[in-house]
Amino acid sequence: MTVGYTTTLTSSSACPIFTYNAFIQWLDTYAAIFGAIFIIMGVFLAFFGRYLLKIAVFIAGTVLIAFIILVIFYATFLSDKTDAWVGWVVVSLAVIVGLVGGYFLAKYERFDAALLGAWGGFTLGVILNETVLYLASSTALFWCVNVGLAIICAVAGFFAFNQVVMIGTSFIGSYLVARGISLYAGGFPNEYVIINQIKAGAITNIDPVFYAYLAGILIMSVLAYLFQLKMFKRMEEHQKHPYNKLN
Predict the structure, then answer these.
(1) Mean pLDDT within 79-103
(2) Within a 13 Å sphere around the CA of 29, how many CA atoms are in the beta-carbon half?
(3) 161 near 225, Cβ under 8 Å?
(4) Which residue ranges make up each domain of the chain?
(5) What's the CA gap between 151 and 51, in Å, rounded?
(6) Handedness of CA 230, 231, 232, 236 (dihedral sign)
(7) Residue 138 to residues 67, 124, 165, 204: CA-CA distances in angstroms?
(8) What percent of the chain is predicted at pLDDT more than 90?
């Protein structure tokens, strides 16, 4: 006789911890691949974001557009039961659209710093929420801080182009490297899970290992910024002022 077992979890933390968005599950399935991609992109952005600005914006635009498309697809009609080949087809199409979008974003230099600043600001908001603001248990605060910082840094990009680009890419790149390493080593809380835990009021602490990642992000950001600053000072004068040729 076959005996079936059913486990029922009754807790405010059950769903946020044990139920993942299908897209997050798909990323976890191929963590080794995406970990390597994050690390490679992160190193490039952190140390060469300003020097190779067009490439950096192209990469940033491609990643952001593709990511948004994937989130929308998996939030609507794709699920964790979707065949692997379907997932890869969707990813391929999202990347193609992202490449096209990244190409056009890279052509309009007035928006380069705004785009990188917005991404850096949003990433900073995520870090702040995972570091201390999660204690407020407010999803409204989570989004207000993230979106607010993204807008502030995007606007700052129009007034301090070079500094915003160097600081933004140094920070974004360092974050991606830490994120990539965490896909192998663990210990870096997933943003999606954090949001759901905040909604359920189920989050009380963050894995202490995260603070080691945070220290690494800050140290690498400073080193990368200093490296970029040194390269920036060696650039030709006309290369330092990308808006000049737009006037």
Answers:
(1) 77
(2) 15
(3) no
(4) 21-234
(5) 24
(6) positive
(7) 25, 17, 31, 13
(8) 23
